Amino acid sequence: MSTLLNSPHFAITLTLLAYLAGHGLYRITGKPSFLQPVVSGIALVGATLLVLDLDYGTYMEGASIIHFMLGTVTVALGLPLYQNLGLIRRHLLPLMVTLAVSGVVAAGSATGLLWLTGSDHATLMSMATKSITTPIAISVTESIGGYPPLATGFVMVTGILVAACGGPVLRITGVTHPAAKGCAMGMIGHGVGTARAFEMGSETGAFSALSIGLMGLYTAIGLGLLMP
Amino acid sequence: MKGSLVTGLAIILLFQLAGLALEQIPGMPLPGPIFGMVLFFLYLVITGGGYDPEREAARHLLTHMALFYIPAGAGIVTLGALLMEQALGITLALTLGTLIAFVTTAHLMQWLSR
């Protein structure tokens, strides 16, 4: 029995079933942002490992083919970036200036606050990638000495906060321009924020979608140069 | 149709492989998959959008993006002690840090887009 539970078959099947269950739950409950399929998917796998007292390392080894595909998905992110090329060209200067500031403020404010409370290097490096899309965040955090699972958690919580509170914050602080709303949702809240941005309007959604790739690339380059 | 999906996946894997090759060069600031993304993007620009197989494969991968980060994310089960120890700092960074960055980004972009 334990050989079976420690086999790649179990790890892969568990991952797929947890993902499908997460999707089902998300649909049934009316798509609340805190129940993103990936959140419940991760929770289901985590709970299964704890309940059956299985080793995470063994599970990860078994599911490594799925983890490998994360790199493939990252490559695929080139497609939405290309599809929004026209919009990027038309707003090149405001986009680049906002991106340059936003990336520094997003990584800087989070790591700064964490550093003030006395944190270790690996946790700080896991926090630095909190506003970029998960596949890129995992690659980057791995290469700068953070913990990929911790980075994934931080990315998810950030995205959920932006999706849940972004609308009211934009209203209260008087932001009405679709490009500004989209950039804030996508540069800070990555894919999770973008799903919410599309509900605010198609232009807001498009700006949010292009912000995911730009912010991911910019943060990856910035952290890669700062933390060799 | 099924054959073309495999073709598309093979093309995207080639870009991933090329990205990994670039990563081997000392001093490169980017992880391999992100190099792959840049190369794939440049390829789409040069070919005026690429072809159906790789676009279709990319769309399929992106639709199920969340599946691929479950294995890495589930590692959170090994980090309970660390989360407890630094609960205050982590909460501050995630809430206040996110609010600061969000408001800055929105207002800067709005000001620049006048």
TrEMBL record, chain A:
The keyword Transmembrane helix applies. It is found in: Membrane. One of its GO terms (cellular component) is membrane. It is a multi-pass membrane protein. Keywords: Membrane, Transmembrane, Transmembrane helix. The keyword NADP does not apply. The chain crosses the membrane at residues 6-26, 33-52, 64-82, 94-116, 150-170, 206-227. PANTHER family: PLASTIDAL GLYCOLATE_GLYCERATE TRANSLOCATOR 1, CHLOROPLASTIC, PUTATIVE SEROTONIN TRANSPORTER. This is LrgB family protein. The lineage of its organism: Bacteria, Pseudomonadati, Pseudomonadota, Gammaproteobacteria, Oceanospirillales.
TrEMBL record, chain B:
It comes from the Bacteria. It is a multi-pass membrane protein. It holds the Pfam family LrgA. It is found in: Cell membrane. It comes from Halovibrio salipaludis. This is CidA/LrgA family protein. One of its GO terms (cellular component) is plasma membrane. Keywords: Cell membrane, Membrane, Transmembrane, Transmembrane helix. InterPro entries: LrgA/CidA (IPR005538). The chain crosses the membrane at residues 33-51, 63-84, 90-109. Its main location: membrane.
